[in-house]
Design brief:
- The chain is an alpha+beta fold and about 550 residues long.
- Among the domains are: about 110 residues, 2-Layer Sandwich (Uridine Diphospho-n-acetylenolpyruvylglucosamine Reductase, domain 2); about 120 residues, 2-Layer Sandwich (Uridine Diphospho-n-acetylenolpyruvylglucosamine Reductase, domain 3); about 120 residues, FAD-linked oxidase, cap domain/gating helix (Vanillyl-alcohol Oxidase, Chain A, domain 3), CATH 3.40.462.40; about 40 residues.
- The protein has 21 helices and 18 strands.
- A 7-stranded antiparallel beta sheet has the order 15-12-14-13-17-18-16, sandwiched between helices. A 5-stranded antiparallel beta sheet has the order 5-6-10-8-9.
- A hairpin with a 3-residue loop joins β17 and β18.
- α12 crosses α15 and α18 runs antiparallel to α19.
- Belongs to the FAD-binding oxidoreductase/transferase type 4 family.
- This is FAD/FMN-dependent dehydrogenase.
- Its cofactor is FAD.
- GO terms for molecular function: alkylglycerone-phosphate synthase activity; FAD binding; oxidoreductase activity.
Length: about 550
């Protein structure tokens, strides 16, 4: 499958067999109707978007510039084709999907270039800077923070520099557990190449199937198993970044005291400091044993307290995740139809046991905890965690639900597309806060979302889970949904803004792992202080005085 066809499927053009099918989940339709007032039985599903209905701004790339790019990478790797340019215009956020379906494309890249190696990237960058063009690096296109779009007011030629041909594991230093990886390697291709030699990167974000190593670094990504392996800031040890005239090289050192960390400056820079072409990542041998177990807690507060206790203990699980009561209800309502003993256990025996404990079935919270390593190590980790779960009033229910979690962990984003087809919004916001503030943040976000729903006159839904634990705090990941009325983007902004403001008002960050882009930049000053923004602005302006690299992302120029 070509990259273009894969992107078409991701957009919804030609998506047979791809995505979320509610028919497999018997409780989904009544749950959605109760949660957001959307009757799937009577709702009319939107017709498949037609590219012919999209008005694409004409390319502003001059013939001479296109010829120069063609001389660098070859004619088949340079294009001003309308569909390819549209595919490279936005990421995959809800705002992006609404605009593209609503024919709201005010500015697209003028030319898309696919270099084959770092040398070609350097030549493309130098050629673009020489004609005062804008360069927007493009990995998997899965960003949901507005990090990819060219601004409508941009009058210069915009080059989308697609790293899709740079996707190889170049070398593995087995003694050090370091792998040199080209920045355009997407998650599945990278993991397959590593697995073939007995290694794993251990980094599995929701966007794993479509995102790239370079994109992970550029947005400071976090994966589902970061409790064990760390986020990309921990995993990325060395970097190669193409800048005008030369390559910024950071060797993969275990630690260094060479002044302020340039590596940290590149992490989360969203293409504003150059084009990441290679990342040296910490890799690990494939664990002998890997299990994910499911647990239930009587309340959200009990579950969060258990997660905190685990983070402070000698246990080191790979995953510590707990859903609040609302997300637990959603998970149980949308599980596949059961039969036989499985049906009896889940729908009769387990609720009976919980009731005998005095639990309110409307407040129960489902947790997934993963263990990896040698057999003895994994067994010991589970023993430590089981004791903590018991102390906090929880109960284990085995590996069965954990296997389901592993199988479906990358499917959730498709729910957003399904709801959009039905005229409803489904989106996410995530944050991180100290343990002492976590429940306060959780409750404040719920309150803010419901006030926003009341303001726009809808029945809305919000649910949450704790997805990554640290010694000092954790990440909270919120999913919200509502049925659009007359002005989808204004309504979406009302809800999204309320949630983001609740984050900073309650001492949480504006984003844990999705990045800033343009979607979250309005809250950056409240997050890192006005002086922090001044320092960041000075970095971008000093490193790129001509504003050639993805301008107006993270902070406005």
């Amino acid at each position: 499958m070509t990259d273009t066809v894969k992107h078409m499927k991701w957009w919804g053009w030609g998506n047979e067999g791809v995505g979320f099918h509610h028919e497999d989940k018997p409780g989904f339709a009544p749950f959605v109707e109760k949660a957001v007032g959307l009757d799937l039985g009577s709702a009319t599903r939107a017709s498949e978007p037609s590219f012919e209905d999209v008005d694409v701004p004409a390319s502003r790339a001059s013939e001479g510039f296109v010829r120069e790019l063609t001389a660098i990478v070859g004619g088949e790797h340079v294009t001003t084709d309308d569909m390819v340019r549209v595919i490279h215009t936005y990421g995959k956020g809800l705002r992006d999907l609404v605009r593209i379906r609503g024919n709201q494309i005010l500015r697209s890249p003028d030319v898309v270039v696919y270099p084959a190696d770092e040398a070609q990237v350097q030549r493309v960058v130098d050629a673009a800077v020489a004609v005062d063009a804008v360069i927007i690096p493009f990995g998997g296109g899965s960003n949901i923070a507005g990090s990819l779009e060219p601004l409508p007011a941009e009058t210069r030629t915009v080059v989308s520099l697609d790293l899709g041909r740079l996707r190889e594991v170049v070398d593995i230093d087995a003694d050090s557990g370091l792998a040199r990886v080209q920045a355009g390697a997407q998650g599945p291709d990278l993991e397959a190449q590593l697995n073939a030699k007995g290694w794993t990167i251990g980094h599995f974000p929701d966007s794993f199937t479509h995102s790239t190593v370079g994109g992970w670094v550029a947005t400071r990504s976090t994966g589902m198993q970061s409790d064990k392996y760390g986020d990309i800031a921990d995993i990325a040890r060395g970097l190669r970044v193409v800048r005008p005239g030369d390559v910024l090289v950071l060797r993969p050192l275990p630690s260094t005291s060479s002044g302020p960390s340039v590596r940290e400056m590149i992490l989360g820079s969203e293409g504003r400091l150059g084009v990441i072409t290679e990342v040296t990542v910490q890799v690990h041998r494939i664990p002998e044993k890997r299990n994910i177990y499911a647990y239930f807690f009587p309340t959200w507060e009990a579950g969060v307290a258990a997660m905190q206790a685990i983070s402070e203990s000698d246990a080191s699980p790979s995953i510590t995740r707990i859903s609040d009561a609302r997300e637990t209800a959603f998970t149980l309502a949308t599980s596949k139809k059961r039969s036989g003993f499985s049906k009896f256990t889940a729908e009769t025996a387990l609720p009976k046991i919980m009731s005998s404990k005095g639990w309110d079935l409307d407040t129960i919270c489902l947790s997934f905890i993963g263990y990896e390593g040698g057999v003895a190590h994994a067994k010991h980790q589970k023993k430590l965690v089981d004791a903590i779960v018991k102390k906090h009033g929880g109960m284990g229910v085995g590996e069965g639900p954990g296997l389901l979690y592993d199988q479906k962990k990358f499917d959730t984003p498709y729910l957003r597309d399904f709801l959009l087809d039905m005229g409803a919004a489904g989106d996410v916001s995530e944050t991180a806060a100290p343990w002492s503030r976590l429940n306060q943040v959780h409750d404040a976000v719920y309150e803010a979302a419901h006030k926003a729903y009341a303001e726009i006159g809808v029945t809305g839904w919000i649910m949450s889970h704790l997805s990554h634990s640290y010694h000092s705090g954790a990440c909270l990941y919120f999913t919200f949904a509502f049925v659009f009325q007359d002005d989808p983007l204004t309504e979406y902004d009302t809800v999204k803004s309320a949630i983001q403001q609740a984050f900073v008002d309650n001492h949480a960050t504006i984003s844990h792992h999705h990045g800033v882009g343009r979607e979250h930049s309005a809250w950056l000053e409240q997050d890192i202080s006005p002086e922090g923004v001044k320092v960041m602005t000075a970095l971008f302006e000093g490193a790129d005085p001509g504003a050639h690299f993805n301008p107006n992302k993270v902070v406005a120029d």
